[in-house]
Design a protein that fits this description.
two-stranded parallel ribbon; binds NADP nicotinamide-adenine-dinucleotide phosphate; six-stranded parallel β-sheet
Length: about 210
Amino acid sequence: MKKIGVLGSGAVGKVLADGFLKHGYEVMLGSREPAKLAAWQAAAPGRGSAGTFADAARFGEIVVLAVKGTGAEEVVRLIGPDALSGKTVIDATNPIADAPPVNGILRLFTTQDESLMERLQRLAPVARFVKAFSSVGNSLMVNPQLAGGPPTMFICGNDAAAKADVKGILDQFGWGSEDMGGVEAARAIEPLCILWCIPGFRQNRWRHAFKLLE
Ligand SMILES: NC(=O)c1ccc[n+]([C@@H]2O[C@H](COP(=O)([O-])OP(=O)(O)OC[C@H]3O[C@@H](n4cnc5c(N)ncnc54)[C@H](OP(=O)(O)O)[C@@H]3O)[C@@H](O)[C@H]2O)c1
């Protein structure tokens, strides 16, 4: 599958869109205000197209959800859950609350018993959500070059074929992947963003990634 609809005009949406373009995919980047993507499109020839969130969801054979966590459910409602019917949806969102971090510790608006991806999966049962890219900073999402070698992306979701799609993409993007199981494993994966950010907030260290060693 070569057509990717990326929902999100922030750093993550743009970095992942460029990653997919680099690896030969066709990309449409989506925003509530597509006009704001003109500069992104103009900055490099052959860059993907831009549209609304609904346009990008329709365009993608695979869809990437890269919107602010507090707006993620709203975006799924906006496009209409059926727009995601049968599609692999790579969910890069984190449920970060609007409150500022305390001593470098981000706050989430979810609980340990319910992740954001479970809420999204309930809202759009026809979609095949896979959590990925949520536990690393955007500058390392595509083919990270780290002294410790390829890091590990923890993924989860209810659909095995969708997870196989994402594993294939992660292979291309220079990541090992570890399947942590069904959608509820997002309760463990999403909070990794808190841990990942601590060295950044406390010591301005932002170039690291997790690796599972055995
Ligand atoms: N930044 C990172 O390095 C990083 C790393 C891992 C995971 N993440 C996660 O990835 C997601 C995207 O992060 P980001 O840093 O690229 O940008 P962001 O500022 O968190 O998200 C920007 C996108 O969210 C949309 N948005 C914001 N509020 C909205 C609302 N109320 N309703 C609907 N849409 C709304 C914006 O829509 P418009 O286009 O219409 O403005 C824009 O497309 C977040 O969930 C974040 O936690 C970020």
